[in-house]
Amino acid sequence: MADKAFITPTAFGNYLYDLFIQTSEELQHSKAKMIDSIKKELAVNYEQQLQTQAAQLHQTNLLLEQAKGMAAEKTKLNFSLIILMLVLGLVIGALVTFFLKK
Question: What is this structure's pTM?
Answer without folding.
Answer: 0.51
